[in-house]
Amino acid sequence: MQPNATGVAWWYLRVSGLLVIALVLGHLFVMHYANAPSSTTSAFVLVRWSDGFWRDFDWALLLLALTHGLVGMRNVIADAVPSRIGRRAGEGVLAILAATFLAIGTISIVDVARGLHARGPLSDAGWIVPALDALLGALAVVTYLAVLTVAIALVARAAMKLPIGWWQFHGQWAWALHRATGIGIFFFLMVHVLDLALLPLAPNLYDATVASYANPFLMPMEIALVCAVIYHALNGTRLWVLEFLDQQTTKAAIGTFACVVVATLLLALPSIFVLVRGS
Amino acid sequence: MSVQKNFRIRRFDPSHDARPYWATYTIEAKPKFSVLDGLFAILEGQDGTLGFRYSCRAGMCGSCAMRIDGREGLACRLRLENLGATITVEPLRSLPIVKDLTTDMTPFFDKYRKVEPFFVGDSPSFAQQTSEPLRVDPAQSLRLSANRAIDCISCGACYSACPTVANNPAYLGPAALNRAFALAADERDRDADRLALVSGPEGAYGCRSVGNCVSVCPAGVAPLAAIQLLRRGKTASAT
Fold first, then answer.
1. For chain B, which has fewer Cβ within 10 Å, the N-terminal or C-terminal residue?
2. Which residues pair with B54 in a beta bridge?
């Protein structure tokens, strides 16, 4: 069977997903377990990126995460946009966004590796920090509202004693969580690339942005982000096991899904402790 | 000893009703009563207008597939004693409703037909081989996978449980793709058109690996496993 564009995209998701898992879990460990995110200041990043290994590590993570996200978002658009023109337009916008953010991230890494000055050309542009905070805040509001809406809808159906439809299937939850976490991580990655771009342009503003991660309104988002990354990575591994080891039975699917959920919660606990202590 | 059971049935007659509505009935369920027996009790004793489809009553034909307590299954195979005091019964999803629990299976079988669900041999060479039957090792892994796939009874439960089918009307669906795999696993089959169709965006790569099809199949088939083997190119022509 010769895969077409959709087939190539499917294979790319599987291969890039496998490659990015080790990188993203390593990144998570350094940034959310060994350190509190609010303490990863410009001085911290400068030390980190003065080491070629970490520069290559972070650039490979950026490349794989962005392209993996791009292909994943292509599926989201394919499922959400009924018109062919709309889908093509959406894919075009996504490709431009991914290329732009890859370029911004690459330039930031190269610039920081050359060394940082106390101030940069945008150091006096005080509006940048509230703008980035607003972006993160908007992402947080959308996430909180989405979780609330789903919870209300499920409770309402249960109260009316109506079947909960597809939501009774473990596979539906595994898929929906994988998709929701993927979308969340993709958009967070963009905001993250933007704040990293501040490093060479305005290190003082970068430090102010990082400090805002300790904001109590954003704290649940920080925790949700850690859970999202762990879940997405573990469930991606689960898909590999089920698909490539020919384990497509309901028993295997439910068992592995339960393991993924429990492991996600257990692995997130130390990070929550670090976050709360850091704030 | 009989037990009282409530049936909450999603009813809709497109020729009369503006929208679907719920109707509730109470029956005296005898031991070993199936959901289908319960529907007959309603039809014969309470409401002769209730519409549902059935045929073999033995779980072989797939005609009585419907959603029972929100989950796709065969009404003739599910016993009332294993269900709660109130049983919610709805028609299959993603298919037009003919009346109440009876759905029009045309979209399902149109897609089934698209994958050419029959053996397509390479005529000349196959004719040359007829004097000596082709030997297929029953322990061959592809053959074992095909064994599972050919148990499909085309009831449409997987089609109804699949959110990709509901979202993308062009997607072929689990049953058609499962059938395509069963034939593609046959080393005598030579249907390149079928393989080209199932490798398209409406085929195996359109599947989102949700897996509801595996959860609901009353015949124990795993359509997602067949789809996965198609995606990985595990067909007889590739081996």
1. N
2. none
Chain A: residue whose CA lies nearest to B212: A171
Contact list, B215 vs chain A (CB under 8 Å): 169-171, 250, 253
For helices A170-201 and A128-159, the axis angle rounded to 10 degrees is 170
The CATH number given to B3-103 is 3.10.20.30
Question: How far apart, in whole angstroms, are the C-alpha atoms of residue A191 and residue A210?
Answer: 12
| Percent of chain B clearing pLDDT 70 (strictly above) | 94
A-B CB pairs within 8 A amount to 102
pLDDT of residue B199: 87
Of A75, A168, A171, nearest to B71 by CB-CB distance is: A168
Q: Are B136 and B194 in contact (CB under 8 A)?
A: no
**What is the tally of structural domains in chain A?**
1
**Whole-angstrom distance, CA of residue B109 vs CA of residue A56:** 53
Q: What is the pLDDT of residue A216?
A: 79
Question: How far, rounded to the nearest angstrom, does the alpha carbon of residue A272 sit from its chain's CA centroid?
Answer: 17
End-to-end distance of chain B based on CA atoms, in angstroms? 58
**Among B17, B15, B16, B41, CA closest to B30:** B41
Average pLDDT, chain A: 86
In 3D, which of B227, B193, B201 has the Cα closest to residue B114?
Answer: B193
Q: What residue ranges do the domains of chain B occupy? A: 3-103, 106-238
Q: Tokens 């199936």 belong to which residue?
A: B34
Query: What is the bridge-based pairing of β-strands B65-68 and B21-29?
Result: unpaired
For chain B, which ranges sit under pLDDT 70?
Answer: 122-132, 238-239
Q: Using CA atoms, how far apart are residues A122 and B144, in angstroms rounded to an integer?
A: 65
CB atoms closer than 10 angstroms to residue A273 = 12
Token readout for A192 is 């993250």
Q: Residue A30, CB half-sphere, CA atoms under 13 Å: how many? A: 12
**What's the gap between Cα B148 and its chain centre?**
14
Helix boundaries (H) for chain A: 5-28, 42-49, 52-80, 84-113, 128-159, 170-201, 203-211, 219-244, 250-278
Provide φ and ψ at B37, rounded to 5°: -60, -40
Candidate from B145, B211, B228 with C-beta closest to A171: B211
- Give the domain extent around A51: 5-278
Residues of A near B (CB-CB distance < 8 A)? 1-7, 9-10, 75, 78-79, 161-166, 168-172, 174-175, 239, 242-244, 246, 248-250, 253
pLDDT at A96: 95
User: Hey, are the CB atoms on B214 and A249 less than 8 Å from each other?
Assistant: yes
CA distance B102 to B11: 10
Q: Does domain B106-238 have CATH number 3.40.718.10?
A: no
Question: Residue B72 forms beta bridges with which residues?
Answer: B67
